[in-house]
Amino acid sequence: MVRLLDDALLATQGTETSTDAALELVDVRELLDAERNARPDRQIELESGRENAPLYVLGNRLALRRVFSNLIDNAITYGHDARISIASGQERIVVTIDDHGPGIPGGMRDMVREPFVRLEQSRAQATGGSGLGLAIVSNLVARHAGRFTISDAPGGGARMIIDLPRFRADRGD
Predict the structure, then answer these.
(1) Class assignment of domain 2-171?
(2) What DSSP designation does 91 have?
(3) Among 18, 20, 35, 51, which residue's CB has the most CB atoms within a 10 Å radius?
């Protein structure tokens, strides 16, 4: 019950809520690798490119971990596996998480970002959560000046895309 209340508060907080007090350099590659390693019994593929250099964003480590943890858990729960890829440019870091599940119908993609909306309708905890996960993801990504997109994975399933501004010391971020 406490977790549900915490999630509800987090999902309904406005994007104007400041997270500046907890900002730090967060290596997205390291964070995703830790999330994969935390689930050794699960099928999680991580493609992070040939370069092993850190991919930094200026953000709240706990919030970003929650974003990726939620999306990876959803991919495993509803899509049986998670395929994660990281792409980076000078300005942005893009994390894509694909699964092999039923996907999210186009007409529902905006709606599932709202609190308490679930595609699985039984309301049983065994078959799904409280309907707050994607609302939390959407809110936390926005608080990091990022974009959260839902689309179709190639070959079927859901594709979740998190696009975050890359930290660059020469910009004075």
Answers:
(1) alpha beta
(2) S
(3) 35
